[in-house]
Amino acid sequence: MANDSLNGKACVVLREVTKDYIGIRALDRVSFEIKEGEIFGYIGPNGAGKTTTLKILVGLINDFWGEVYIGQYQLPKQKLEAHKLLGYLPQSVAFQEWRTVNHALKTFGKLSGLTEEEVEDRIPKTLELLGLADVRHKKISQLSGGMTQKVGLAQALLHNPKLLVMDEPLGGLDPLSRHQFKEIVLKLAKGGTTILFSSHILSDVQDVADRIGILNRGRIKMVGSMNELKNQLYSQKIVEVFFSHESDKWQMLGTVKNVNKVEQPSPGRVLVYLQTGADEDHVLNDTVKKIVELGIRISSIGMLSPSLDEIYLNYVQKEEKA
Amino acid sequence: MKLQLLYVDELRGFYKSKVMLFLWIGLPIVALLFRFIQSSTTGQAIPFTVISALIVSSLAGTLAAVMLAVSIINEKNRHVYELFLIRPLKRRDIILSKFLSVYTCVAVASFIAIFVGVAADYFTSGVISATVFQDTAQSLAISLSMVAVSCSAGVLIGVAAPSVLVGAILVIYGGNQVSVIPLVPTLLNLPQADLFTVGLAAAVSIALLTVAVTLFERKQF
Question: What ipTM was estimated for this complex?
Answer without folding.
Answer: 0.84
